[in-house]
Amino acid sequence: MSDIQSGLKKLQLDGLFGHLCSSTGLYSKETFLSLYSCITRMVRDHRMSGFVITRTLEDESFETMAHALEGINGLPLFRFNEPDFFPSGTGICDQTGFLIVLTDRMCATLFWSAATHQTFRMYDGGWTFHPGDSRTIATQIIAHIDNPSLDHLLKETPVDRRYDDKLNVLITSLVHGLENRNRELTVALDQVQLLNKRNVDTERLAAIGQLSSVIAHEIRNPLGLIDLYAKLTEDHLGKLELSEQDDKKALLLKNLSLIRQATGSLETILSELTSYSRPLQLNSKPTDIHTLVRDICEFYRPSYQEKEVNLVIPDAHTTERLDIDSDKIRQALINLLKNALEASAAGTTVTVQVVHRAGDPQLYIKVTDEGKGIDSNNIKKLFTPYFSTKGSGTGLGLAHSRKILQAHGGNVELLSSEPGKGSTFALILPRPFQE
After folding, report:
1. What does the alpha-carbon distance between residue 77 and residue 87 come to, in Å, rounded to a whole number?
2. pTM given for the model
3. CA pair distance 318, 10, nearest whole angstrom
4. Could you say which architecture CATH assigns to the domain 191-277?
5. Which fold has domain 285-430?
């Protein structure tokens, strides 16, 4: 291999793409698909001769476009889809795709990297219709491919050196217009999906609310009578002198206590059902969040002491006043404290922290336990109403907490969970704008 070719192998091809392409930036996948389709149609419809190199990484959408180039006389198509085909020294990452067209009447290069912005459904990439740029990029690609026929085609393909800069500007302008429309449609689609989800949730809550009210009313009456007569029987039995049958008396009192505990549990479940299905009405006022969190934790501390679980609340040296409904936030935080306690073994620690940073628009109330963690199969279901991993749970605790926080403009999230090491949940509240 010549010294020139040895030097070419050291070039970073992703960088070369960006350097030579006339238009580079961040675009939606739909824009790259549209441009790929346009180039493919022009080559196919005008029966151009030359060759095409493509790397679609077996993406179904791009593969459909590439199939249209198969079987065209005088236009060999070379595919290089293997993720590790290009060595690390080339600079082409595993998720970089490209289309390079060298023909007698048109040259074009299109490249995209799906690895960088998948969260936003956006790809880094660009394109050029400059014959010299496309030939330079093709030369670099072929230098890494052991394929004599490609070397021959590169030398033999008569590339038209004429270049119409106005045409390239026109195409780029059209593509940018298409990109703007794609983004508008994406935003609109997201809004429609969000509104649809809210409508479905509202209708479901309305149905649940109506059913829950009927069920609660029908159950509460006999449940109240059971608890009342169990209490009366307990009182009468306590006044009787049954010295010869003290063991039986103790057993009867224990059974009555268990009956009253069971009715109390059922009453709690009914309250959760009806409170979750009712619309929230906030009574917000400025509140120091550090003081509120400490008061709630101290209120719930006896439950931790009973189970011998440590509850740690780091000292706060600042104040942070938020406009919140303190009673509702109390409910949400107690739900997290209760879940953390149930997940904890004696001798372990649960830590509650209020975290906020200057300039951050959100405040986090983090609850971290050292429990067994959450199974990965259950993480996506955590906030689903009526889903519970506990045999006695209603599955409404986290769902109701999220409802409370969302009414405040915040959220409840699972920040982390590791099997055998514990989990961290957070109540997230918006902070007032600070200049």
Report:
1. 22
2. 0.45
3. 55
4. Orthogonal Bundle (1.10)
5. Heat Shock Protein 90 (3.30.565)
Three-class DSSP category at 257: helix
User: HSE of 419 in the Cβ direction (CA atoms, 13 Å)?
Assistant: 5
Tens digit of each residue's pLDDT (9 = 90 or more) over 348-385: 999 999 988 767 788 999 999 998 888 777 777 676 66
Q: Are 139 and 8 in contact (CB under 8 A)?
A: yes
Helices (H), 278-320: 289-307
Same fold? 191-277, 285-430: no
- Closest by CA to 66, choosing from 102, 39, 28, is 39
Q: Is 300 helix (H, G, I), strand (E, B) or coil?
A: helix
> Cα 111–117–119 angle (5° rounding)?
140
What count of other Cβ atoms lies within 10 Å of the Cβ of residue 52? 24
What's the CA gap between 153 and 227, in Å, rounded? 91
How many angstroms separate the first and last alpha carbons of the chain? 62
C-alpha span between 217 and 239 (Å, rounded): 34
Of the candidates 399, 422, 267, 433, the residue with the CA atom closest to the CA atom of residue 331? 399
Domain limits, the chain: 3-163, 191-277, 285-430
How far is 418 from 421, CA to CA, in rounded Å? 5
Q: What is the pLDDT of residue 210?
A: 67
